[in-house]
From TrEMBL:
GO terms for molecular function: deaminase activity. Pfam families: Ribonuc_L-PSP (PF01042). Belongs to the RutC family. One of its GO terms (cellular component) is cytosol. PANTHER family: 2-IMINOBUTANOATE/2-IMINOPROPANOATE DEAMINASE RIDA, 2-IMINOBUTANOATE_2-IMINOPROPANOATE DEAMINASE. InterPro entries: RidA (IPR006056), RutC-like_sf (IPR035959), YjgF/YER057c/UK114 (IPR006175). This is Reactive intermediate/imine deaminase.
Length: 128
């Protein structure tokens, strides 16, 4: 995969562990559905704690990435959904532990609610 990180001084710098944009040439693109913090076998939320749900949602997402034949380095774009944008810094800390630099591009959206009462959801675009 030929991954090029796009950065310009003419737009605001990233306010967290993500790149402004990522370009890929000669590749296969996979669009992952959103993942929440469900325990894979029980289908129940792994925890009521926000941090536990974020970590499990990322683990679930990475399991799908691996099933698609990729690795976390193949994730080029994330969309994060939070029911409380006041926990944005917590997500940044966890995400920077999950993803190495250069970070994928990312958007973060505040939402009123998520399935099963989850507090966090992540979806991804993967390029192989």
């Amino acid at each position: 995969m030929n991954k090029q990180i796009i950065h310009t001084q003419d737009a605001p710098k990233a306010v967290g562990p993500y790149s402004q944009a990522v370009a890929i040439s000669g590749s296969k693109t996979i669009y992952l559905s959103g993942q929440i913090g469900l325990e894979p076998h029980s289908g129940e939320l792994v925890s009521e704690s926000f941090e536990g749900q974020v970590k499990q949602a990322f683990a679930n997402m990475l399991a799908v990435v691996q099933a698609a034949g990729g690795a976390k380095e193949n994730v080029v774009k994330l969309t994060l959904f939070l029911t409380d944008l006041g926990k944005f810094a917590t997500v940044n800390t966890i995400m920077s532990d999950v993803f190495p630099e250069p970070y994928p591009a990312r958007s973060t959206v505040g939402v009123a609610s998520l399935p099963k009462g989850a507090q966090f959801e992540v979806e991804a675009i993967v390029v192989l």
